[in-house]
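Sample intake sheet
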Amino acid sequence: MIERYLVRYFLAVVEQGTFSAAAASAQVSQPTLSSGIAKLERLLGTVLFERNNRRVELTTAGTRFMHHARLIEREFAAAEREAADDAPSMLIRIGIASTLPAALSGRAVGAALRAEDAIRIEVAHGRMRDLMQSLRRGRLDLVAGPVPDDALCLRDLFEEPYLLAMAEDHPLADRAAVTADELVREPMIVRRWCEVLPETSRFFTQAGIRPFMASRTTNDETAAALVRAGLGMTVMPACHAAPGLRLVPLDGFAMRRRVGLVAERETMGRVEGSAAVRALGDVLAGPDAGPGSSPDAGNGGSDADARRDCG
């Protein structure tokens, strides 16, 4: 008999790419996970992974089993949800990407709670990559955040550019756009969970700029606070505009993101007719969907116009 923990170990390796990363994700030791994978392969009578020094790759049999494993995990999660949900209210599990402003997320969740009486909401907050894994395993019903290319979008919310954030009293703050050459001596703050971090690093490297990294953080509110304090600059989405910040286009850096509500086909029917989900999306997509939309947000016309166009 194949036990559930073996399926979860298998999916962790598929999603993380290495046994060590999968063990950390599953919160077990690497020998424990390796032993579990070996046991699963014995039970199935086939090899699931090709091992090498850097990554593991699915065999043909492993690829076939992956589809069944994801279905099994989703059914387990659905059974747990139904067993736990013995109250008459409906439970909706929502993932919210950490790169959406916290204040905006709070307003959206509040609107969802007010829109439907017989409802309970559970919120998970984190990297989009991690939230999508939970969605595919059936642990979430939908995710609000940047839409992956291979995801099923329940509702498009807005599109926006990535801009260069600096303190409002910075010497470059009154510029309509800033070139890479002007940033040679500027310290930078790294948003470690930024969805376009590799593209941002590549942009500066190709421009021959290796800025001093004044701070690295996974919290966007912390990053914004450090920018306002004058510690450095950072690249962030336009929706993070707020008092004390100036967001300016970075010449030659044209990255944008599409933000939406993402669901799996199996959960689409469960959430698409929900008044709570509709209210959540309305707030996230509305004209005040970002702090920068208010007149006193500390941004110039280019930022405000960009945000309105995206909404």
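Comment: The chain has three domains: 4-72, 84-158+258-293, 159-256. The domain at 159-256 is CATH 3.40.190.290 (D-Maltodextrin-Binding Protein; domain 2).
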